[in-house]
Amino acid sequence: MYDLETRRQALALVEQGRSLNAVSKQTGVSRATIRQWQIRIEPLPRVALRSCPGVPADSASYAYLLGLYLGDGCVSPHPHGGFYLRIACADSWPGLIELCRAAVTAVRPEAALSVLKKEGCVMVSSHDRHWPCLFPQHGPGKKHERTIELTTWQQEIVADHPWELIRGFIHSDGCRTINWTTRVVAGEKKRYEYPRYFFTNMSADIMRLYTDTLDRLGVAWRRSNARTVSVAKRASVALMDAHVGPKY
């Protein structure tokens, strides 16, 4: 079994005009396997392998957009060629919509961009043939029903811009809320409020990527349930506030 990045690399070399024998020696994949990939490529469509743009120049914007995509995004084929990247953004957060649009433009300035209004949300939509290259996690079905793993170049971007990924996660499937409790002090009941961050996702792989990144950043977290992670300790909330902040 070979991962998607190995397939993408091998087929990209073939597209450059190299022989199957040369590609096999460079990648360690047999010629028969490469020939089979040329006939049937899943889940990355062949059209997306031609002249792939490579690693995005604006890696910080890409890390943020990656968080948005893994939370509330999808890549789907356009009936007349190319692909759509769609990110769902709630109407309640106009600042998020603008941040999403800016990130898409920064990552693919050549791509067509539109905003389609839906009930309670908008779809920030971009048409370009290279979105499957930039988001190789795409595929049929729901994200939590398939494996989600980052390629090597994506891991390097996340290592360089971990806070941008966390911002994208929180701005898609997360929130900053104010919890409260009451205590009796000197016979008088007083209300105390404190902020918390929550992130909810059904994919165990995406959840692991989120918590592993928090660990590297020194942010303490705990699971509220199987699908939700909270950040509540004062020092960790302060870190999140400094680098993420609430949606707006």
What do these coordinates show?
- With 248 residues, this protein is an alpha+beta fold.
- The chain has 3 domains: 38 residues; 88 residues, Endonuclease I-creI (Roll), CATH 3.10.28; 77 residues, Homing endonucleases (Endonuclease I-creI).
- It is 43% helix and 25% strand.
- It contains 10 helices and 8 strands.
- A 4-stranded antiparallel sheet has the order 1-2-4-3. Strands 5-6-8-7 form a 4-stranded antiparallel sheet.
- α4 runs parallel beside α8.
- It is elongated.
- It starts with a helix and ends in a 5-residue tail after the last helix.
- About 4% of the residues have low confidence.
Give the secondary structure arrangement, pairings included.
Elements: H1 4-15, H2 20-27, H3 31-39, H4 59-72, E1 73-77, E2 83-90, H5 94-107, E3 112-118, E4 121-128, H6 131-134, H7 152-160, H8 162-173, E5 174-185, E6 188-200, H9 204-217, E7 222-225, E8 228-231, H10 234-243
